[in-house]
Write a structure and sequence with these properties.
There is one protein chain. The chain is about 50% helix and about 10% strand. By secondary structure, the chain is of the alpha/beta class. It has 4 domains: about 130 residues, Conserved hypothetical protein from pyrococcus furiosus pfu- 392566-001, ParB domain (Alpha-Beta Complex), CATH 3.90.1530.30; about 50 residues, no CATH class; about 120 residues, no CATH class; about 140 residues, no CATH class. The longest helix is centred in the C-terminal third of the chain and has 36 residues. The protein is elongated.
Length: about 575
């Protein structure tokens, strides 16, 4: 087979080549070897474009190749191109010095073959996939190209000495988002872990990339994926063997295409006991539908809209918490809307009852308390994480009890209400203060200040850092981020250590969080910071809120004194 020396500038890589990455260090090493020993093996090219040249004087037509496309040997071509660039630079200096220029690396040895696109592609694939250091992402691309050109998994497997399962898994890697492909190449994600991630939808892959941005093990990835899929065995309708949806809106999970057990090829590592749902939208709709179904079974005894709370009945209770995530709030609202459409009364238990009674429904004590009118049977439709049906009991306030129950003294009820309001008014002031300063932290350009942190700022920052520590570590310090009695501020003040400087943006971000409303130590930090940084506005806010508090407290205290005087006269 004839070998030709072809100018490098007439040759270009093929867009069909599955190999897209080349290590720069190894290319330079190869270039050094070629410079010393010469190119030992020619590259293979094909004519990619040609044109007819017409001699205007003679009229003769000559076909001149305009360019060639690499079929095999792109790595060698790139190495020689590096030598050409080096030679060009040296030649520029030689020309200026009137010396003869070198043309050793202006051409490269080539074998020119006539090949169709399919033939060229097969040759490229074969050369690249028989390399010892083949990139699995490039291998995945190559297999996918062969599959798109009509090759079966079995044919591809036979050609490259692999199993059909291997080919399938490699092709699946093409579904990885670009960011994850790059992390596989960089070694941040093991190949076995990448194969697991490839089974996720694009949105879930993006979430993984953002949340798990460091080097990951396969075990970590497996846990993440496991948590991303909903375990069917833990679904209420599965546990209760009630996977039947008569309205036709849903398929039974056993027959649904979103059940991993019905994707034996894709999720072959999962058996029936590990069955999971990969359709979060459908799964969550089923949760709501199942809760609604359970509530309807109670319809005979449920309090309807407009009816009074009478004993022997059951009422639906619901309460949303402000610290919930946006996703959880959205799910709660969807469930609440579905429940309200049933036409039953939904009440806030904190507004109607005293506190929850934690005895179970089959407890003999509950039965007695129901008979005595001490507790009320209630149904909740939302658990800690998601929609779920539960029967709860709440202690009855005597002011809502029926006539069959001993009703407390009217004045005593009024006293309790006033005392509760006095306490609540103080809480409102604290909450309003915390909320206002939370907005300051969010809106004021405090973080742009460049001076060193003050002593008070450093104390606040240390609290922010400390509360982010591991729960186990905090326990050794007798602190808990969830215990309102834990005074992180005092702990920081009493346990000072050498500290580095930190940026005020961290403090501002922490103090603008929603949880600032629930922890006194965070509110204390607000006071420390804004008392120092914005004294005028801080005192104005305090003056405004305290004036409002004083006015409300005086009115309620006067009413309380009036009640006490009435008792004296009666005596």
């Amino acid at each position: 087979m004839e070998v030709q020396n072809i100018r490098i500038d007439l040759i270009s890589p093929s867009p069909l080549n599955p190999r897209k990455t080349f290590d720069e260090a190894t290319l330079k090493e190869l270039a050094n070897n070629i410079e010393k020993q010469g190119l030992l093996q020619p590259i293979t090219v094909r004519v990619s474009k040609s044109e007819d040249f017409i001699n205007l004087e003679t009229g003769d037509v000559t076909t001149i190749p305009c360019s060639y496309e690499i079929v095999c040997g792109e790595r060698r071509f790139r190495a020689v191109s590096l030598l050409k660039a080096k030679e060009d630079e040296e030649n520029t200096a030689k020309i200026k010095a009137h010396r003869k220029k070198s043309e050793r690396f202006q051409t490269i040895s080539c074998i020119v073959r006539e090949m169709t696109d399919d033939e060229a592609f097969d040759a490229m694939i074969t050369e690249n996939l028989h390399r010892k250091d083949v990139d699995p992402i490039e291998e995945a691309f190559a297999f996918a190209q062969l599959s798109e050109r009509g090759r079966s998994y079995e044919d591809i497997a036979l050609k490259f000495g692999k199993s059909a399962r291997f080919v399938f898994d490699r092709i699946k890697l093409n579904s990885l988002i670009p960011e994850l492909k790059e992390r596989v190449r960089n070694g941040d994600i093991p190949l076995s872990g990448a194969m697991i991630l490839s089974k996720l939808d694009e949105e879930t892959q993006k979430e993984f990339h953002e949340e798990e941005d460091e080097q990951c093990t396969t075990a970590m990835i497996r846990d993440y994926v496991s948590n991303s899929f909903m375990e069917l065995k833990k679904a209420d309708w599965i546990e209760e063997e009630a996977d039947n949806w008569e309205n036709g809106e849903f398929k039974p999970c056993s027959q649904c295409e979103s059940n991993t057990c019905n994707h034996g090829c894709l999720f072959y590592e999962m058996n029936n006991k590990d069955a999971r749902c990969i359709n979060a939208t459908c799964f969550n709709k089923k949760r709501i539908a199942y809760v609604v179904r359970k509530i309807l079974l109670e319809s005979e005894n449920l309090v309807k809209v407009g009816e009074p709370l009478s004993f022997g009945k059951t009422v639906i209770v619901a309460k949303a918490d402000s610290y919930w995530s946006d996703e959880k709030k959205k799910q709660y609202e969807s469930t609440l809307d579905a429940v309200k459409q049933l036409g039953f009364t939904v009440v806030n238990p904190d507004e109607v009852f005293k506190v929850q009674c934690w005895y179970s429904e089959d407890d003999e004590r509950i039965l007695k308390m129901i008979d005595d009118g001490d507790v009320y049977r209630c149904i909740s439709f939302f658990g800690y994480y998601y929609p779920e049906f539960k029967v709860n009991f709440y202690y009855v306030r005597k002011d809502i009890a029926s006539g069959t129950t001993a009703v407390a003294d009217v004045k005593e009820i009024e006293r309790e209400k006033i005392k509760a309001q006095l306490k609540r008014n103080k809480e409102i002031v604290i909450e309003k203060s915390a909320e206002e300063m939370r907005k300051w932290a969010q809106e004021k350009p405090y973080f742009q200040r460049k001076k060193e942190l003050s002593i008070d700022e450093q104390t606040v920052f240390d609290v922010m850092v400390l509360r982010s520590c591991d729960d186990g570590y905090l326990k050794t310090l007798q602190l808990s981020r969830y215990d309102k009695k834990s005074d992180f501020v005092e702990y920081v003040k009493n346990n000072k250590a050498d500290r580095d400087q930190w940026y005020r943006a961290f403090i501002a971000n922490s103090l603008s969080a929603n949880d600032v409303m629930f922890y006194p130590y965070m509110q204390k930090c607000q006071n420390i910071l804004f008392h120092e940084q914005y004294p005028d506005e801080y005192f104005a806010l305090g003056k405004k809120l305290n004036a409002s508090l004083e006015k409300k407290q005086k009115k309620l205290n006067d009413r309380l004194k009036g009640l006490d005087n009435d008792n004296t006269e009666e005596a």
